[in-house]
Amino acid sequence: METQISLKNLTLSPLNVRKVKTSAEEDAQLRALIESQGVLQNLIVIPSPDAEGRYEVIAGGRRLSALNHLLAKGKIDAEFPVRCVVKTESEAIEASLAENYRSDMHPADRFVAYKAMLDAGRSIEDIAKRFGKTVTEVKKLLKLGAVSPVILDAFRSQEMNFDMVMAFTVTDDQKAQESVFAEVKDQYHPSPRFVRQKLLNTDVTTDDTTFKFVGQEAYEAAGGTLSEDLFADSQYVNDVDLLNRLADEKLDKLQESFKAEGWGFVEATLDGGYSHPLRFAPCIDGETITAPDSVIQEFEAKERELEGLMEAAPDHEDEEANERFRQLNEELNDLKATIDASREFSDEQKQSTGVLLSVDFRTGELVTKVGIALPKKQPEKAQNEDGTTTEAPKPTESHALKSDLEAYRLQALEAAMMQKAEICLDMTIFTMAKAVLAGSTWYRRPLGIDLDVNTFSATKDIEETSAAAEIRKHRDALDLSWLAQEGDLEQFKAFQKLSRASKLNILAHCSAQTLRCATNEVEQYVAEQIKFDLSKHWQPTKANYFNRIKKGKLIEILKDLKGDEFALSQADAKKGDLATILDELDETTGWLPESLTKAA
Known about the structure:
Conserved hypothetical protein from pyrococcus furiosus pfu- 392566-001, ParB domain, three-stranded mixed beta sheet
């Protein structure tokens, strides 16, 4: 029997079967719903054995708590009528269990319901207030509700997980969503990252090293825009070409400023310098120290004190002496850092040494290595037979293009190595042994055995190369049935039952994708062993190369491929037209930029 009972006459019954407490967030949302909608579902009560006219709530304890909270806040009074169904004590447990025994709404249905409220005219702020959620939470739910019904149906039927649904929210274009969904739905392990990259035509985020180096203010001031992903902490860079151009320009200016200081040479790279041959080159210290005399005197005095302490307590058994020893070491380190920072190079030192400028891959900040002693430095001017000098040719490839070319080559070498499982096995064991048995530092190892898988995110078309297709084809051929098992242990047991050939194929696929650098001496040796031919995996095109170099270099390439007469006949053509000609030439097939043929 349903009736209305004043709130003041209701208390919670010990017979209520729900014992697990809900979160504070869930309780807040329920209070907001009751405040805006009222109590939509009745409470189930039994007469109180202790007081006539009072009732105990056996189902609906959370609703009772929410009502009492609203009473305490003065939003309702004690006479507030509550819809209730009265049961006998003998029916209490059964009724309480039945009331709590229900299926939760599927998340996809909830997303669509929120979207329907917005479409009906409610504001985001109003929805947030009525349902006890933040504006940001409602925006996320609305984004999910705007995903194509085709994808939400796949989510309902468990053909698509929640991470994948979130990936589709980076665009509101449902046709584009459905196109990408058709591409990934039959993949064994579809990747949210791949979905975002396909929908946005970029995989570069504001967490990217190059973006941090350029800076958001400079990027947006140059007309660059960002795409928002509500489910990630970073945003996506829409104009990667602009970003790379700005990075090149900034690095070029820095390079020129150091050259103006008189250094013998200045090298610059955007990749952190890890693959640069000068990274481990020896350096000299600046011969002029500009630190105050007081700092130098303090350093020398503490050095003498430390030496005296070591002579007085050589066995380090005196705790007080040990504490002073530790303190002196810290103070000396700080003083030495101050002195080293004050060192300046003489003009003569600068002329005989050089600088390596790189970008820290974590922070995007400039890293400067100065005073590099280069035994055999390329002269900036070449001596001709007649005694005159000629300026050495300036680089024709930008820093960003060089970085992309290295990515193409490394990806292609990955694809080639995947076909040579035994060599991958050798490299994997070798890398592990170097780390465990020889104490090799991570940057000296040929493989990132910590599974730092290459993504090449800064190279816009990296997923469209033939090497990328080969890698996907190799993955699709792997026996990954063991991944369908529940939990690590069961997966491992199933993995052990694979044939040796299947295990080697998986090993080859995984280890090849952790290659550190295609120009590392070990990788180069392996490339020779497997007869690696980059031109079979990557070709320069108008988009990925010819449009990105200067017109003069395009004419030179035409001379090499078609002869002087043909090249001269195209001398007045626009750069874009020259790039198109090279893109369509039969002679371009198999041709590679000089920077890649040297690396190969």
